[in-house]
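Human:
Take a look at this sequence-structure pair and walk me through the tokens.
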Amino acid sequence: MRIGTWNVDNQRLSDKHSRLMVDQNCDIWLLTEVNAEWFDTMGKKVLDFHAHRSTGEMSPGQYYAAVLSTRALVPIDSPHFASAAAKIDGITYCASVLPWRKAHIDCEGWRGESQTERTRIALDTLLERLPQSDLVWGGDWNHSLNGKEHAGSIGGRKHLLAAIEKLVLKVPTSVLSHRGDYCTAIDHIGVPLSWAVNGAYRIDAEKLSDHDAYVVDVSSSS
């Protein structure tokens, strides 16, 4: 199975965006910062993918997150306003945006007096609502999981690592670089600890978004 995540930076869907996604041959995409024009008139399709988007919008016509699947999906109520979740073949897939340093200034809804506290509060909400098994969780977490911290905070990273452990996940994207190579990835895909990871890749998306895309090849234990 191939799973991708990409912050598409509220860009309008173009042939080049479509080509990048099709070329990766992903079964699942966990998208973030998605322009409403990516969705069909019913909001249930993106390209040839079944789609379910977050209830929360970063700005009018810009959704925080969406789950895309080549197979039929069952929408799940958003576990957090900046997340989208759906069940596909018995697995819960969740795409999330976690708070960046200016989240409380840029957008409404983020609670907490510091970046670390905002991250903790968002994660506490997600941990209350996400299953601790049969879960794939990814998106723009705005934190590197090791090395220099650029977009988030060291305290926020500690809360995020604790959440990953509680959800019994491993994050193969953590060893990859963010664009520019000044920190490790802040866009991630977490898969069950029992799954085999056959590869993890950063996909150059320059001129299409301010984030590159990330793809993992995995095999489930079942």
